[in-house]
Structure formats: structure tokens, C-alpha cells
Write a structure and sequence with these properties.
The protein is an alpha/beta fold and 234 residues long. Helices cover 44% and strands 22% of the residues. The strands form three sheets. Strands 2-1-3-4-5 form a five-stranded parallel sheet, with helices on both faces. Helix 2 runs parallel beside helix 3, helix 4 packs parallel to helix 8 and helix 6 packs across helix 8. It is globular. The two termini are 31 Å apart. This is Stage 0 sporulation protein A homolog.
Length: 234
């Protein structure tokens, strides 16, 4: 059963989110501070974290970084900071999505449902995968173990980074637009271009020897991206 951790210190927003999540039939736990959120996350497993950036003790960005040390769980930032630089920072440190405040509650619930649905479907596909491993060059993707190994060392990927890499590897040499990638990985037709671009950048930093001159995830100018490596299933 899906359960999300809601990290928000504003009592009014807490009430609104609580009512909306109950109406959606989504189980949740509330945390009013960053420290409380980290303590709860150590004791319980969640399907998603809905995380405010402006918290009374430690910032949401620091909470995200701490969670990312041990978990690939999807993290969705909520913030009144709406500059592109704020979004890029949030996504660069490991968030899977970024929603501006004030938000439309119906839109927020739709985004949450999409993340939960995509995560369930992806986990089901991993369990049912005929070939549990994908290899290219010196990199091994363990689909069922949700791990990426490079030169015998594990590379840490977030949930969306892992899903994106697995998708690219299943479709080598095929070009995808930013919109197609967003719809496939995030499960929504409305495209957040910046979200895809930042995730591509993060993924390149983790798997490419030279992220500024990538040899795996290539930009096809004016179209989108393609995965250029030859993959082997095992």
C-alpha cells in the first residue's frame, strides 16, 4: 500500500493536504520539521516524500540530501521559490519533481497520483523482467536489485534517474523528445522541460567519464536525446 511522508510546517497547508490525501485514499504521515521528517524516515518506509523547502529548523534541501544518502525514494519539493535557478538547484540535489506554491490542490494530487502510479508500474516491470541485468561497457544495471555498478563500484541513482537509465538502455539508438521522456518517466503529458534537462545532466555526471562530452546519452540537436551505447541483456 502506498504511503507518503508530508513534510510541511504551515498548519493551514497541513490541513489542506490532509483533507485532500484522505479524499484520494492515500495513507500519509505528517512531519512539521526537517529533523522530525528524518527521524520518521529512519523508522518507516514510504512510497514518496512531499517536502517543503522552507522549514523551521533545517531546510528541505538539506533533508533531501540526507534522504538521498540512503534512499532512492521519489521526492517532490513544494516551494514558493519559483525562479528557474531554484528549480534547478532542487532537482540537481536529488528531487524528482518541483511544485510551486501557491499550488492548485487538484494539480498537486494529480502529480502525486502520477508519481505513485509510475513507481508501482516500474517496480512491477522490474520484478517481471525476463532479463534482470543490462550491461554496456563497464556498467551493469541490476534491474531487480535497483543498483548500477561501474568498475565494481556502485553508483547511487535516484528513482527517476534509475528509471530513465533503464528506459534508455531498453531503447538504444532511438531518439526521444523531452516531451516523450517526461510522459514516459513522470507519467504526465504536461511537460516540465527543465525537470528532464536537469535529470539528464545529473545522470551524465554519474555514468559518463566526461559529462561535458558524453558518449552514452547524446543530445540530438533540435530533437531530443538518444542512448548511443550497445547494450546486452543477461
Amino acid at each position: 500500500m502506498d504511503r507518503i511522508l508530508v513534510v510541511e510546517d504551515d498548519p493551514h497547508i497541513q490541513r489542506l493536504l490532509s483533507i485532500a490525501l484522505r479524499q484520494e485514499g492515500i495513507d500519509f504521515t505528517l512531519a512539521g520539521s526537517g529533523a522530525e521528517a528524518l527521524a520518521i524516515a529512519e523508522r518507516q518506509l514510504f512510497s514518496l516524500v512531499l517536502l517543503d523547502i522552507m522549514l523551521p529548523d533545517i531546510s528541505g534541501t538539506e533533508v533531501c540530501q540526507q534522504l538521498r544518502l540512503s534512499s532512492p525514494i521519489p521526492i517532490v519539493f513544494m516551494s514558493c521559490k519559483n525562479q528557474d535557478s531554484d528549480k534547478i538547484l532542487g532537482l540537481s540535489i536529488g528531487a524528482d519533481d518541483y511544485i510551486e506554491k501557491p499550488f492548485n490542490l487538484h494539480v498537486l494530487m494529480a502529480r502525486i497520483r502520477a508519481h505513485l502510479r509510475r513507481n508501482r508500474l516500474f517496480q512491477q516491470r522490474l520484478k517481471q523482467a525476463e532479463h534482470p541485468q543490462i550491461r554496456f561497457d563497464n556498467i551493469i544495471i541490476d534491474l531487480q536489485g535497483h543498483r548500477v555498478i561501474r568498475n565494481s563500484l556502485e553508483i547511487y541513482l535516484t528513482a527517476k534517474e534509475f528509471e530513465m537509465l533503464a528506459f534508455f538502455c531498453r531503447h538504444p539508438q532511438q531518439v526521444f523528445t523531452v516531451g516523450q521522456l517526461f510522459e514516459t518517466i513522470w507519467g504526465e503529458e504536461f511537460c516540465e522541460t527543465r525537470t528532464v534537462i536537469v535529470h539528464i545532466s545529473n545522470l551524465r555526471k554519474k555514468i559518463e567519464e566526461n559529462p561535458l562530452s558524453p558518449k552514452y546519452i547524446l543530445t540530438v540537436r533540435g530533437v531530443g536525446y538518444k542512448f548511443a551505447a550497445n547494450t546486452a541483456l543477461s
